[in-house]
Design goal:
The complex is a heterodimer.
Chain A lengths: L6 H9 L7 H21 L3 E8 L2 E8 L1 H20 L7 H18 L3 H20 L4 H32 L13 H13 L7 H6 L5 H22 L4 H20 L3 H22 L2 H32 L15 H14 L6 H15 L3 H27 L13 H19 L2 H6 L11 H20 L9 E3 L3 H16 L1 H34 L2 H48 L1
Helix pairs in contact in A: 1-2, 1-4, 2-3, 3-4, 3-9, 3-12, 3-16, 4-5, 4-9, 5-6, 5-9, 6-7, 7-9, 9-11, 9-12, 10-11, 10-15, 11-12, 11-14, 11-15, 12-13, 12-14, 12-16, 13-15, 13-16, 14-15, 14-16, 15-18, 19-20, 20-21
Chain B lengths: L1 H9 L4 H21 L15 H22 L4 E3 L5
Classes of the chains: A mainly alpha, B mainly alpha.
Protein name (chain A): Na(+)/H(+) antiporter subunit D
Main location (chain A): membrane
Keywords (chain A): Cell membrane, Membrane, Oxidoreductase, Transmembrane, Transmembrane helix
Chain lengths: 586, 84
């Protein structure tokens, strides 16, 4: 235990003193913490740390192997870049939240058991939600609430799965799920898929990320979905379902990106698309495929962070986020354009950029596994990726119609962060060796063959030709797109309507009944009683018996109505529960 | 150094050389695709030189029009105040 410093601890404990520092001291401290974490990850040795018992369950705070080290490495590097990007912020809140968020993500990556994993999993949800709340506008706060509600629900599903799985397997240790999937495993899988933003569970991402603060979105783009990729790779490699979910996801993201007008929401849809490659790779499950998924996650975190930084810089400088209101910024912010384009070429998998050496691995794994359809679909998604992130977004944001916006380059710390990320995107593309050496399995893959390069360039540059020809069809339109969040956004409204109208009316009707029927009855019986009293003792017994009979009749009518409702509701609930149970059980 | 390069892609005055460069690149890619060695072709189409160019162009057009169809005809695109 002495030779192991948990990187999650560095971030979470390191976050506590931030509010007490100011000025240069705080800035140096903010940079120091991620640097320490990077050193800690580099010094880490594979093994098990922090074994203990809790409620009779085995707890393993940290299980270190090659898979967790790759993710921890890129998480800490991205934390450093994101922190530098956010250095100009005067408030402490966002820094604290970001550090707790990164620390929790690292906690998940090293978690050796499900309880530790769950604890950090929830920590991530709450810390990241703060980065959306911190934006402060009504729109952002509503989005943050939705984000939190979805993640809390996902957390409950995950916890349910963990308990069922633990009861069935007799251990809460986190590792590959073996044998046929049982109900617990399916619930765990659902919880993981929600965080990986797999459609139809994707809408929280594209709903909330564009509403986050400029600096917060950079962190968010990196950690939540990629921890989900990590846990999927750890627990569910080779599950056929994931291949198809991933493939659909890759195309789903690019289709929505065509329709999108908000620059960061467009990028968010590309997170969905890119994570699709990783999910598909994990589903294929061969060594090459898991290596591909892992390296793609590594590359993705850096270039997606860079893209969010570039779009964030534009929002920071102009205060605008809609493509239909942006344009002509390249003269005022050439460095931002150049850095953004490095990220765009990397995500599009241009040769000599990071995406090329990782994405081609996933596609090669699909080909090697004789999955022609998957390979073609993922290649088509690559075309869409370049079309939007590499062509449409920069064209309408930086070039296109000059809107005469007052713009300048963003602050120096933002430029430095973007520069470092851009340099890494290019360095990984040119020298993939160090990244390949980090991967969980030995790599026997050469990305730079003549065919690979000429095919990639063919796909990308002829996508550009299509863009040039059909440019007008792509003009941004000031609309929003319906996604699966429609169900809970409209559903919540329907629920509120139900609570305010029929339910309230029912309540009123019930109280009306007591006022119009029960009260007169009571008055009446009191009057009868008085008359009976007056009429003499003889009539008393008969009179009481009659009023009880009458009263019982009224009460019976009243009550049977209500009870039938209850019974009906219970029967409906029972049928629904049985249905859900039957479906899940299968 | 970066500013002139970015300017080349943005300034109106370079529109013509920009277009020429673009077409030249397209032609070079097709030519290169005929020249590279294809020993490991897994599938039939991979043996056809230029398939990736055709597939890239086709994918791009398909994605644009399928998405716009879904947006406009299937009702995915709504006014910005839809949820308000």
């Amino acid at each position: 235990m002495t030779d192991f410093v948990h990187p999650a601890l560095i971030f979470i404990l390191g976050a506590l003193p931030i509010p007490f520092f100011t000025g240069l001291v705080r800035k140096s401290y903010l940079v120091l913490i991620p640097v320490l974490a990077i050193v800690a990850v580099m010094a880490i040795e594979p093994g098990s740390y922090g074994e203990t018992q809790f409620l009779g369950q085995e707890i393993l705070i940290a299980k270190v192997d090659k898979l967790s080290i790759v993710f921890a490495t890129v998480f800490t590097i991205m934390a450093l870049i994101g922190t530098v990007y956010a250095l100009h912020l005067s408030g402490a809140g966002e820094h604290v939240a970001a550090f707790v968020y990164v620390g929790s993500a690292l906690g998940v990556v090293f978690a050796g058991d499900y309880l530790t994993l769950y604890l950090f999993w929830e920590g991530m949800a709450f810390a990241s939600a703060y980065l959306v709340f911190a934006q402060g506008t009504g729109q952002a706060i509503r989005a943050a609430f939705r984000y939190l509600m979805v993640h809390v629900t996902g957390g409950v599903v995950l916890l349910g799965g963990i308990l069922l799985h633990g009861a069935a397997a007799g251990s809460l240790l986190f590792g590959p799920v073996e044998g046929a999937l049982d109900a617990g495993a399916y619930l765990i899988l659902a919880g993981f898929l929600l965080n990986a933003a797999v459609p139809p569970l994707n809408a929280w991402l594209t709903d909330a990320y564009p509403e986050a603060t400029v600096t917060g979105a950079v962190f968010m783009s990196a950690f939540t979905t990629k921890t989900a990729v990590y846990v999927l790779a750890r627990a569910f490699p080779g599950i056929e379902l994931l291949v198809w979910l991933g493939t659909v996801m890759a195309l789903y993201g690019v289709i929505y990106a065509v329709l999108e007008n908000d620059c960061r929401r467009l990028l968010a849809y590309h997170i969905v698309s890119q994570v699709g490659y990783m999910v598909a790779g994990i589903g294929i499950g061969t060594e090459l495929a898991v290596n591909g998924a892992t390296s793609h996650a590594f590359a993705h975190i850096l270039y997606k962070g860079l893209l969010f930084m570039g779009a964030g810089a534009v929002i920071y400088v102009t205060g605008r986020r809609k493509l239909s209101e942006l344009g002509g910024l390249y003269k005022a912010m050439p460095l931002t354009v150049a850095f953004y384009m490095a990220g765009a070429l990397a995500i599009s998998a241009f040769p000599f950029f990071s995406g090329f050496v990782s994405k081609s691995m996933v596609i090669a794994a699909a080909a090697q596994d004789h999955r022609a359809l998957v390979m073609l679909a993922l290649t088509m998604a690559s075309s869409g990726t370049f079309l939007h992130t590499g062509l449409k977004l920069p064209y309408y944001m930086f070039f296109g119609t000059d809107r005469g916006l007052q713009a300048r380059e963003p602050p120096g710390n933002m430029l430095v962060a973007m520069g470092v990320a851009a340099a890494l995107c290019i360095a990984i593309g040119i020298f993939p060796g160090p990244l390949y050496a980090l991967l969980p399995y030995p790599v026997d893959f050469e990305p730079y063959t003549g065919v690979h390069v000429s095919e990639s360039l063919g796909i990308l540059m002829f996508t550009a030709l299509g863009f040039v020809i059909f440019l007008r069809a792509l003009d941004p339109e000031s609309t929003i797109s319906l996604d699966t969040d429609w169900f809970y956004r409209k559903g919540a409204r329907a629920f509120m309507w139900f609570a305010e109208r029929p339910l309230a009316r029912y309540e009123k009707a019930v109280s009306d009944v007591s006022e119009t029927a029960v009260l007169p009855f009571l008055h009446g019986s009191a009057r009868t009683g008085m008359r009976l009293d007056l009429n003499g003792v003889d009539g008393v017994v008969n009179g009481v018996a009659r009023s009880i009979l009458d009263g019982g009749g009224v009460l019976r009518r009243l009550q049977t109505g209500v009870v039938t409702h209850y019974v009906l509701a219970m029967i409906a609930g029972l049928i629904a529960a049985i249905l859900v149970f039957a479906v899940v059980w299968r | 150094m970066i500013k002139p390069v970015v300017g080349f892609f943005g300034d109106e005055q370079y529109a013509r050389p920009r277009r020429r460069l673009f077409y030249l690149v397209l032609v070079l890619i097709i030519v290169a695709d005929f020249l590279v060695a294809r020993d490991h072709a897994e599938y039939l189409w991979e043996r056809l030189p230029g398939w990736s160019a055709a597939y890239g162009f086709g994918s791009c057009v398909l994605l644009i029009f399928v998405s716009k169809f879904l947006g406009h005809r299937a009702g995915l695109m709504r006014r910005e105040d839809y949820y308000d």
